[in-house]
Structures are given as structure tokens and as C-alpha cells.
Write a structure and sequence with these properties.
It is a single chain. It is globular, with a radius of gyration of 24 Å. Helix content is about 40%, strand content about 25%. Strand 8 and strand 9 form a beta hairpin. It folds into two domains: about 180 residues, no CATH class; about 230 residues, no CATH class. The two termini are about 40 Å apart. It is of the alpha+beta class. The chain has a seven-stranded mixed beta sheet. Strands 1-7-6-2 form a four-stranded antiparallel beta sheet. A three-stranded antiparallel beta sheet has the order 3-4-5. The chain binds zinc ion (ZN). The site of zinc ion has 8 residues, from loops.
């Protein structure tokens, strides 16, 4: 099965002083454009009017202004869908990435072993030079420029730790992902506020399981929430927005680490398919009670599924979704389903006394539903391995990662603590 996959390649621009000044001007203009969009939206202009106004006033080339407009609209869209905390007005930002179309706002050219760039920092103001980056990223970029199977997309000039970077989106148009019907190992993923429960189940039994914990995400979100509330009361809104940005970055970074681990773990099994609970089904059904509601409203849920799917696809692993009904309440031993089977992290069946770690058990049931859905044999689920847990830790300094780090493909693999619980 072929799938189109996009990744971001990161390069350093290493501009001289004069070029740096230009790039900085371009980023400040990008910020002005985006802030103007937010302001006009707040004043009640409709989006077509806003587009015309900012196009007329912008010192960026037309298609760059267009890309900035699209991006701001995405933010506004999320705000109106009520996934965000407040109306975006990010005056606190020093500069904003210049977002450009390939062969319009920026261009790339292979020259010997190097790739030369040209960026329009502003209308008629170009910055040129050679891209610096890891050999892998440079190779991939050259492939993307030359091969018909790849497409070079938008790029952003980003200022990170006082260095100018070019983040280039490239798309592999025909990446191979295995057909989920050929899968033999079903990896159930149970996502929670503070951990994911994983189980690998084949037609002959439960192969292995793992719980990956990320207690910091939950803790941080609660802390930020409290601080934010307090600040809202005293009206310190720009600091509040800054915190919001920091929280997002932290959660984002942790979820990337977690999803990398999920995919690494899945990869060791024969013909894996990663099975999630179907979010849509959950939203349709309001009878799930507080646990499900809490999970739905806790940010990691959808994002983690998305990150895992994305990374899985790059590794050729398919994903599937199953009905989430009662995965937390059903007993894998006798089938008895009751809310009182679950007490926090512990599952104990009120009918047969069978016990397990509740999130690992949910993972097992999700795997089993994956098998069921494909009319496979579902093995006995009452003989489970010891629960292993791993913890995802905070990185030393999240903000200044090495420039070559690809946010999607080369996530740091810090080994977490390994412990085991017996139930
Ligand atoms: Zn039972």
C-alpha cells in the first residue's frame, strides 16, 4: 500500500551580519502580518477581507504572505474549535518564522556536494548561501529535489537559539506501508493522561506488554493550568500566553519521545499493526462516564495517536482503529464488564477476582478487538506477562537541541527507568 508522507529537514543558514539583519527584518515583518491577522479577526473582519488587507500592506512577497495567512488561519480555526485556551494574539514573540513556497519564496539548487539556497527575506531582498546540516538530511533533500517520487514543499526560516535555520518540508509521495490485512501481531495502544499501555497479541497468545509512563506531562499541565488561572484573575495575559507556548512545547516534545518508543517497541514483532481506539466513536457516545471524558479532554490523546501513526508509516507499519467501548471495564478472563472492576491503575474483576494493571489490560483488549475485526482467532487473554514500565524523562535543555535533530525522525532515545510490577 502506498502512502504520501511528509517530514521536516533542518539546516543551518549561517548568514553574515548583513544577511542576518535582513532575515531578522523578514521575521519581524512576518510577526507583524500574523499579529495583524489576529487583531483584525478580533475586530470582527471576515477572513476574505483580512486576506486582502494584509496582502496590500505586507512587505513580503505575495505567496509568503499567503502562507503566513494560512498558518494564522489554522491557529484561529483551532481556537474556534475550542481546542485552544484563548484567542491567539502572540505579541510576546520576538520574531515569527518566514514561511515560503518552494521556487517562489525560496529556492534550492544542487551544486556538487552542496545545496545552495536563496531566500526572499522581504520583497526584492534575497539571502543566498550554502545549507549546512547532517549528511542524512542533506542526502534526503537532494533526493527530494531530484526524484519524481518526492516533492519539496514549504520551508520556514526559524530563529533558534540565535541561529538561523531553514526547515524544509519534503514529501515522499509513494512510501510503502504494509497492508493491515497481512498483519500477524496486533499492538493495542491504550492512551491515558499519564501513560500508554501497550500489548502485542497474536492469534496464539499475548506475546508481550509494556506501560510507558509520562507523569511529567500530567503534572506540568496541571501546574500550568493553576498558574494560568491565577494570572487570568490578575489580568497578566501576555505572560500567560508565553506559559501556554512553553507548556505546548514541553508536551509536544514528550509526546514525540513517547510515540518514538511505541513505534520502536512495535517494530520488534512480526508483521505488526498498531491498533488504537477510535476517537470518533468515543465522541459519539456520551455514556462512557468520567474516565473517558477526562481522557478525551486531556490533550495528549489525539496528538499521541497522530504522532504514532505518522512515525509508524515511515517505518512501513500500518495502523487500525477499533471500537473503544468498555475497554477499561471488561475482564479478559471471564468477560464480565463493570465500572467497579477498575480502581485507578488496578483492575480487579468483581466477578472472578482476576487482576491486572488496568492500562496494560486495556491495551490487551484493544489488540484483541483488532484481531476480532479481521475475523482472526482471538486467543485466551488471561495469561499475561509481568508488566514492565518505562518512564519518559524531561530532556536536559529542550530548547537548544542540536540543529540537525529532525523533530520527526530522530527523536532522542534516552533509556528510561525500567521497573516491574506484579499483579
Ligand atoms: Zn472476570
Amino acid at each position: 500500500m502506498q502512502k504520501s508522507l511528509t517530514t521536516t529537514l533542518v539546516f543551518q543558514l549561517k548568514p553574515n551580519e548583513e544577511e542576518e539583519r535582513l532575515l531578522n527584518k523578514g521575521q519581524l515583518e512576518a510577526r507583524r502580518v500574523v499579529n495583524e491577522i489576529y487583531r483584525l479577526d478580533k475586530e470582527g473582519y471576515d477572513w476574505n477581507e483580512i486576506e486582502q488587507i494584509v496582502q496590500t500592506r505586507s512587505s513580503h512577497v505575495k505567496n509568503t504572505t499567503q502562507r503566513l495567512f494560512d498558518k494564522a488561519l489554522d491557529d484561529l480555526g483551532r481556537y474556534y474549535d475550542e481546542d485552544e485556551y484563548g484567542h491567539p494574539r502572540q505579541e510576546y514573540q520576538e520574531e515569527y518564522p518566514i514561511r515560503m513556497n518552494y521556487q517562489e519564496g525560496y529556492n534550492l539548487e544542487i551544486s556538487g556536494d552542496d545545496v545552495e539556497y536563496r531566500v526572499s527575506a522581504l520583497k526584492y531582498k534575497h539571502v543566498r548561501g550554502t545549507l549546512h546540516g547532517s549528511p542524512q538530511h542533506l542526502e534526503r533533500l537532494k533526493t527530494a529535489i531530484q526524484s519524481d517520487d518526492w516533492r519539496v514543499g514549504t520551508a520556514e526560516v526559524v530563529n533558534k537559539c540565535d541561529k538561523y535555520e531553514l526547515h524544509v518540508n519534503v514529501t515522499h509521495k509513494t512510501a510503502e506501508v504494509a497492508d493491515k490485512r497481512d498483519s500477524t501481531t496486533f499492538i493495542g495502544v491504550d492512551v491515558n493522561e499519564d501513560c500508554v499501555g501497550l500489548a502485542a497479541v497474536t492469534e496464539s497468545g499475548v506475546e508481550d506488554s509494556l506501560v510507558i509512563e509520562y507523569p511529567e506531562v500530567k503534572k506540568q499541565r496541571h501546574e500550568f493550568f493553576t498558574i494560568r488561572k491565577r494570572m487570568q484573575e490578575v489580568g497578566q495575559s501576555s505572560l500567560e500566553r508565553e506559559l501556554q507556548g512553553r507548556e505546548k512545547q514541553f508536551v509536544h516534545d514528550q509526546l514525540h519521545q513517547v510515540s518514538r518508543r511505541v513505534v520502536d517497541w512495535a517494530e520488534q514483532f512480526e508483521n505488526p499493526v498498531i491498533v488504537f481506539e477510535d476517537l470518533k466513536d468515543m465522541r459519539d457516545d456520551i455514556e462512557y462516564g468520567t474516565r473517558m471524558n477526562r481522557r478525551l479532554h486531556s490533550l495528549p490523546f489525539a496528538q499521541l495517536q497522530e504522532f504514532v501513526s505518522y512515525k509508524a508509516s515511515w517505518n512501513g507499519i500500518p495502523t487500525d482503529k477499533v471500537n473503544p467501548e468498555y475497554t477499561s471495564q471488561e475482564c479478559p478472563n471471564c468477560g464480565h464488564t463493570s465500572q467497579s472492576n477498575r480502581r485507578g491503575k488496578r483492575f480487579k474483576c468483581v466477578a472472578c477476582d482476576w487482576q491486572d494493571h488496568s492500562d496494560r489490560k486495556a491495551g490487551v483488549l484493544i489488540s484483541a478487538r483488532g484481531l476480532e475485526e479481521q475475523d482472526r482467532n482471538v486467543p485466551a487473554l488471561n495469561n499475561l506477562p509481568v508488566v514492565r514500565t518505562r518512564k519518559v524523562r524531561r530532556r536536559g535543555n529542550g530548547e537548544c537541541e542540536p540543529p540537525d535533530r529532525n523533530p520527526f525522525l530522530t527523536i532522542g532515545r534516552n533509556q528510561g527507568q525500567i521497573g516491574s510490577f506484579r499483579y
